[in-house]
Amino acid sequence: MKLSLRVVCMAMLVCIQTIHVHAQQKQITTLPVRGFCIAAPVPSGVDTFVKFIKEELATRQVNTLILRVDYNYQFEQHPELRDSIALSKADIKKLVRVCKEYNIRLTPQINLLGHQSWAGTTHNLLRAYPQFDETPHVKMPAKYVWPNADGLYCKSYCPLHPDVHGIVFSLVDEICDAFESNAFHAGMDEVFYLGDDKCPRCGGRDKAELFAGEVRTIRDHLRQKNRELWIWGDRLLDGKTTGMGMWEASFNNTHRAIDMVPKDIVICDWHYERADKTAVYFAMKGLRVITCPWRNPQVGAIQVADMATFRKDATPELKENYLGIMQTVWSDAESFLTGFYGKKKDGKSNEENTPWNCFRVIYSK
């Protein structure tokens, strides 16, 4: 009798644990946003990327795809800003069609405000329109090193230049029309140059107000066509108080902009080496938030579980601010696919901490 009772109890315990696991899995797989963010492919890689969408994104129930386009498009309104090799409208329509087929929300990104250069290279906007440069006195080095005397990470455009928005909003409208998108990702991460003392327009101004003002200007423009603004969240976090540092949070006091930005924007909250719980902070500030892992599968798995827990335990008022998870990839699409399919010649495909391993792990959850 005792043995039978013990067996029954053990069976009941296994049953309860199974129900709990299934409940957790259901909670995780039904996150509203199950995203993937990567650089847009080059023209020769579009068909391969379409195949990846069908066979890998759709089968994992990915429902949101952010493509970092920047100047990788044959812009008609401002052809001077095109990359030398750029996607055509026909290329974009291939991506649009496959995403519609699998109910994936396709959204383009162009870096606005910051990231107007990288290392020793000035990107297309400031190269074509150097008058928009927030720090024209900072010259691009022949050999880039960090740290450097100018504090140069990436250039920014001046948000108060009277002509800058006429140019960038033309790009935004054209790429959103091509993507047939109801949202736009403006980047806006890692903005170190803002309100520079030597800028004749914004020198001496409050950097938080400048940042919030640019967010509001972009958001107001997008609203004219019922489009939603997405940005990275690092500039809205205090890097000193939190100890998160100057990269994934702010050292130049832009963090106070969190109380000034419109509440209908979407925050992409990235933390790559720790599973920081800042999604709670954004949600409690009234902002919708998506947690974004990169290359650490263990951190990514915790972030998925955290987001599920935040939604489960939140009040009805806060629950819908926790939107979900988005895998980020900080390479070109071709390099990612080479690693994902195990074709890298240097052996790095098998390393544990890679974006493709992180992608597989978080979507196994």
Textual characterization of the structure:
- With 365 residues, the chain is of the alpha/beta class.
- It has one domain: Glycosidases (TIM Barrel, Alpha-Beta Barrel).
- It is 39% helix and 14% strand.
- The relative contact order is 0.12.
- Mean pLDDT is 93; it is low at 7-28.
- The two termini are 40 Å apart.
- Helix 2 (46-57) packs parallel to helix 3 and helix 9 packs parallel to helix 12.
- The protein is globular, with a radius of gyration of 22 Å.
- It holds the Pfam family Glyco_hydro_20.
- Keywords: Hydrolase, Signal.
- Residues 1-23 form the signal peptide.
- GO terms for molecular function: beta-N-acetylhexosaminidase activity.
- Belongs to the glycosyl hydrolase 20 family.
What number of domains? 1
Number of strands: 10
Q: Estimate the strand proportion.
A: 5-15%
Helix content: 25-40%
Secondary-structure arrangement, i.e. CATH architecture = Alpha-Beta Barrel
Q: How is the CATH topology named?
A: TIM Barrel
Task: From the alpha carbons, calculate the radius of gyration and give it in angstroms.
Answer: 22 Å
Helix and strand element order: HEHEHEEEHHEHEHEHEHHEHH
How far the N terminus sits from the C terminus, by CA atoms, comes to 40 Å
Overall shape: it is globular
What is the CATH H-level superfamily?
Glycosidases
User: What is the average of the pLDDT values?
Assistant: 93
| Poorly predicted tracts of residues | 7-28
Keywords: Hydrolase, Signal
Pfam family, one: Glyco_hydro_20
Organism: Ohtaekwangia koreensis
Protein name: Glycosyl hydrolase family 20, catalytic domain
